[in-house]
Write a structure and sequence with these properties.
493 residues, alpha+beta, Arc Repressor Mutant, subunit A, 3 domains, ten-stranded mixed sheet, three-stranded antiparallel sheet, 15 helices, nucleotide-binding, Asn/Gln_tRNA_amidoTrase-B-like, ligase
Length: 493
């Protein structure tokens, strides 16, 4: 059967490294980068006599994630040892949570592209669980040697496990994007897929449409970009469909993705839980999360992207604009702080997503380091909207404030005499002067070449140093042209 005859079933296991100063179970420093094997201690190396102690900050971060995703936080959860032997795991086991995780249930909202008439429609992808664990080290395989860096070993992780509710590679990528945005809103992780602080394993299976039983799943390991996640799932779907079409069974396996060949390949047959020999961690008591701890975490939660997007659309913004403004929490917070008049929401959005982001990108700054305060931008937008400034001059003022944040837009306007000229008689006089100076272009315009109109508007704006009100310039030009046409008609009679 061709691929459309199969239903694609996908579940994701996402590992997110938590942003903490120290590792999950020791006081060893924990950060991205650094010389190999410089962020290690006796516990990281699995030396005898060391004992694990849970990182309170890591648990706080994990708790907040569970709460925003609507999980049921378990008052008591247990640590377990997951055994496997590999050079990047010095102890020979990983401390994790197996049958008693700290959070169960919950869901992540992703765009529902099937609802074409509603750009804010979403579908909920249910979660099975979230659990905490420690990371392994990193192996680098060269042609002749395998090198091991233990800096990452013991870093705090949460693993977010979805139910097999995703139905396409595109949905899987949407899921990862939304999860990354939520994690960054919470400030609990850099969630950078390229750096490995956000990694994904995709479980993929196929079944005939209408079948109740799930097909045999294969797990694609260590996908570290949205592009590769989507491409790897599509490649695995093709592989499984080819097997099924030939009447061959899909063997449960762990897969890798080769982007050069755009193919998945079998690394090993899939381990089952029994292969890891889970058993309770004997060196740590159960983790207890009481109601007071939950209430304290709940009080610190930010407003999440989807509710904010809906609020922005209610203010008159497009779904696209709302998506841009809420992509990062800092940008959404900046917009909220600058919006002093709801009727100016669209104008403010245009200035932020246009000129302000352009200046930030050119200076390689983020919104958190923006020299233009929300109040200053709100003042600038107000000056444009009430007619004090033209849009063209406002850009000059914004550049000036960006360079010198001690100046306010209004102070610059008054200092440099930048108020927009809205005197109709003065503008009409400027139009007459420009028309007289360009008889050739005037003849073209009177002959019906309407594109020349822009030339005259530009000349008037240049003559006024950008201060003339553009709408009044257009009106004055229309009036002067009508007068000239009428005069020409009188002469011809």
């Amino acid at each position: 059967m061709p691929i459309p005859d199969y239903e694609v079933v996908i579940g994701l296991e996402v590992h997110c490294q938590l942003a903490t100063a120290t590792k999950m179970f020791s006081a060893c420093a924990c950060s991205i980068g650094g010389e190999p094997n410089t962020r290690i201690d006796a516990y990281t190396l699995g030396l005898p006599g060391t004992l694990p102690v849970p990182n309170r900050v890591a648990v706080d971060h994990a708790l907040r994630l569970a709460l925003v995703l609507g999980c049921e936080v378990q008052p008591l959860s247990r640590w377990a040892r997951k055994h496997y032997f590999y050079p990047d795991l010095p102890k020979g086991y990983q401390i994790t949570q197996s049958d008693q995780p700290y959070a169960t249930g919950g869901a992540i909202e992703i765009p529902d592209h099937a609802a074409a008439d509603d750009p804010l429609a979403t579908k909920r992808i249910p979660l099975q669980r979230i659990h905490m664990e420690e990371d392994a080290g990193k192996s680098t395989h060269t042609g002749e040697h395998s090198l091991v860096d233990y800096n990452r070993a013991g870093a705090p992780l949460v693993e977010i496990v979805s139910l097999p509710a995703l139905r396409s590679a595109a949905e899987a990528a949407d899921y990862m994007r939304e999860l990354r945005t939520i994690v960054r809103y919470l400030g609990i992780s850099e969630a950078n897929m390229e750096e490995g602080t956000l990694r994904c394993d995709a479980n993929v299976s196929l079944r005939a449409w209408g079948a109740a039983e799930l097909g045999t799943r294969c797990e694609i390991k260590n996908l570290n970009s949205f592009k590769f996640l989507e491409a790897a799932i599509q490649a695995e779907v093709r592989r499984q469909a080819d097997l099924l079409d030939r009447g061959e069974p899909v063997v449960q396996s762990t897969m890798s993705y080769d982007p050069g060949r755009d193919q998945t390949k079998v690394m090993r047959t899939k381990e089952a839980a029994a292969d890891y020999r889970y058993f309770p961690e004997p060196d740590m008591p159960p983790l207890r999360i009481d109601a007071a701890w939950i209430a304290a975490a709940q009080a610190e939660l930010p407003r999440l992207p989807w509710p904010r997007r809906r609020e922005l659309v209610a203010l008159g913004l497009t779904a696209y604009d709302a998506g841009v403004l809420t992509a990062e929490r800092e940008l959404a917070d900046y917009f909220d702080a600058a919006l002093d008049d709801p009727s100016r929401a669209k104008a403010l959005c245009n200035w932020i997503t246009g000129e302000l982001l352009k200046l930030l990108n050119a200076s390689e700054r983020g919104v958190a380091d923006c020299p233009v305060t929300p109040a200053a931008l709100a003042e600038l937008v107000g000056l444009v909207e009430d007619g004090t400034l033209s849009g063209r001059v406002a850009k000059v003022v914004l550049d000036e404030v960006f360079r010198d944040p001690s100046l306010s837009p209004r102070a610059i306007v008054e200092r440099d005499g930048l108020r927009q000229v809205s005197d109709a008689d003065a503008i009409t006089a400027m139009v007459r002067e420009v028309v007289e100076q360009h008889p050739e272009q005037l003849a073209q315009l009177l002959a019906g070449k309407d594109k020349v109109r822009g030339f005259f508007v530009g000349q008037v704006m240049r003559a006024s140093q950008g201060r003339a009100n553009p709408q009044l310039v257009q009106r004055a030009l229309a009036t002067v042209l009508d007068e000239l046409r009428a005069a020409r008609g009188e002469v011809e009679d």
